[in-house]
Amino acid sequence: MKTLPLRLTPGQDLREALEAAVRAQGCQAAFVLSGVGSLVDARIRFAGADEPLCICGDSEILSLSGTVGVGAPNGDKRGHSHLHMAVAAATGEVFGGHVAPGCRVRTTAEVLLALLPEWAFTREPDTATGYAELVVKARDGT
User: Does the global pTM surpass 0.85?
Assistant: First the structure.
């Protein structure tokens, strides 16, 4: 495991930026160890919901965790990430759930990733859950 501290800048999409950082390191798998910062129009999907809720305006990231998966040996370049966060709206109300695309950094996001260069994360349909779930493989394909 190798750690990678990041500072994301205003306007970056949180999810896309984390996936790009992992890809730039030549890795396909990572975990978020810690994350704080601020967002504009945070987008969070609650459990069982089809669409994310927009926490409109400024918000603070109180915690960020999850897996970051990018690409695969077969040339697949899609993201396979599963991120959760808790954010506080400007009113102090706290929301938590799945990080949806479109969470834009307001001033900064400070994230510490644990890179797993020997592993690859993908998502494949799971008949037991009905969702695409995490599949962990060694990068050598075993």
Answer: yes
